[in-house]
């Protein structure tokens, strides 16, 4: 197991994590890789670390020349979640953004129209979800663009990745290349959200949030993360996970992201559409066919975005008055966790809750803190 890494390798990995600049990171990572022994149990980790190294080198190359203005390449998260549109140039990312949000991006036939990330807000029923168009990662000849790795870096931090394909321009090649590029930056597309999500922070120590069951303790997690130089992070456990799952996230640095494929321009003559569907199925990610020109598939797309995020809406009520907006939480959230999200003291003083909706057999049923909520439940929490 990775835990048996030599102390030297762990120390180098720690140095890598603490490194601030690209140059420092590259140096520390090269050193770490050189002192990890090659055998069956380290194979996967080494592969990941080497990919990360390649990515850092590429990012260094792609940085604007000294003296040139560094373009702003980040978008502040807003709404219940962030979805990114990732794809080749001219695949219709701006057209999609305009169709499902109120944004008004430039849409044009010529390639590389969008040169910085553009956010918009999608309203799905009563939930606001941020949609961000990322600058194209492939040219019309399906070569890597100069902005590719900055877009991929943003995709790594999103909650959901929508891969947008142009059905009229070798969509199978587009999908293959984009999946490979994502893998290069340590992102694996998945239908389901992974068991462990590790969000590194600048302060606040190590925090553990469990939406399910964790076979381990906060102290175990701290020891493990300190060992690889992570001092501040929020570790989210979804479903059932062990300490080894946390370790895999911490060491491999690969993240599993929910994703799906949008096969756009379905009104045009398309080839490879069956192959694309097969590949998506093999990867285990959903696919939706869309034509923005004909306005087809857009409602299904919106629903898929919401469903793929794995979120539920919970309405709260106090003294018989229902709050106007729902609280949006990961599916699997319990009444106790909801109380904690509302207010720490509400969780500490928790006596019981009354629930109406799909998660209960009897409407207005009294439940305890462990009760798991469902989409659109109404909850009233009683605490002294
Ligand atoms: N036939 C057809 N054309 C479309 C569709 N969606 C977008 N287009 C056209 O494709 C071209 C490119 O659309 P954009 O939305 O600008 O594409 P993009 O992915 O944002 O492109 P870049 O920003 O350059 O990377 C435009 O001429 C659109 O009108 C569609 O569903 N069908
Ligand atoms: Mg665009």
Automatic annotation (TrEMBL):
Q: Which Gene Ontology MF annotations are present?
A: GTP binding; GTPase activity
Q: What InterPro entries is this protein classified in? A: Beta-grasp_dom_sf, DRG, GTP-bd, GTP-binding_2, P-loop_NTPase, TGS, TGS-like
**Membrane spanning segments where?**
none
Q: Is Nucleotide-binding there in the keyword field?
A: yes
Question: Any idea which UniProt keywords this protein has?
Answer: GTP-binding, Nucleotide-binding
Residue span(s) of domain TGS: 310-383
Q: What is this protein called?
A: TGS domain-containing protein
């Amino acid at each position: 197991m990775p835990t048996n890494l030599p102390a030297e390798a762990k120390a180098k990995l720690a140095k890598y994590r603490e490194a601030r600049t690209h140059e420092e990171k590259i140096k520390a990572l090269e050193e770490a890789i050189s002192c990890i022994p090659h055998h069956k149990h380290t194979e996967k980790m080494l592969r990941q670390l080497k990919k990360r190294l390649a990515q850092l080198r590429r990012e260094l190359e792609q940085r604007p020349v000294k003296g040139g203005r560094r373009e702003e390449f980040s978008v502040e998260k807003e709404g219940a979640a962030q979805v990114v549109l990732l794809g080749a140039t001219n695949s219709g990312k701006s057209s999609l953004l305009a169709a499902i949000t109120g944004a008004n991006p430039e849409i044009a036939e010529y390639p590389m129209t969008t040169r910085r990330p553009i956010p918009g807000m999608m309203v799905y029923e009563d939930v606001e979800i941020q949609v961000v168009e990322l600058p194209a990662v492939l040219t019309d000849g399906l070569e890597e663009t100069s902005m590719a790795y900055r877009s991929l870096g943003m995709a790594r931090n999103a909650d959901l990745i929508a891969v947008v394909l142009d059905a009229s321009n070798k969509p199978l090649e587009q999908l293959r290349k984009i999946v490979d590029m994502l893998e290069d930056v340590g992102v694996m597309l998945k239908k389901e959200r992974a068991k462990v999500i590790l969000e590194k922070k600048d302060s606040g120590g190590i925090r553990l949030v469990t939406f399910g069951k964790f076979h381990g303790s906060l102290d175990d997690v701290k020891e493990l993360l300190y060992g690889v130089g992570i001092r501040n992070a929020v570790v989210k456990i979804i479903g059932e996970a062990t300490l080894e799952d946390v370790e895999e996230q911490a060491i491999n640095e690969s993240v599993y992201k929910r994703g799906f494929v949008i096969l756009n321009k379905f009104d045009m003559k398309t080839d490879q559409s069956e192959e694309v569907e097969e590949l998506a199925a093999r990867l285990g990610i959903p696919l939706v066919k869309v034509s923005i020109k004909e306005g087809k598939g857009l409602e299904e797309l919106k629903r898929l975005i919401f469903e793929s995020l794995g979120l539920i809406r919970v309405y709260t009520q106090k003294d018989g008055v229902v709050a106007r907006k729902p609280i949006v939480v990961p599916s699997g959230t319990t009444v106790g966790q909801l109380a904690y999200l509302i207010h720490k003291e509400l969780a500490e003083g928790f006596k019981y809750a009354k629930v109406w909706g799909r998660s209960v057999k009897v409407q207005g049923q009294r439940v305890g803190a462990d009760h798991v909520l469902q989409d659109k439940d109404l909850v009233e929490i009683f605490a002294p």
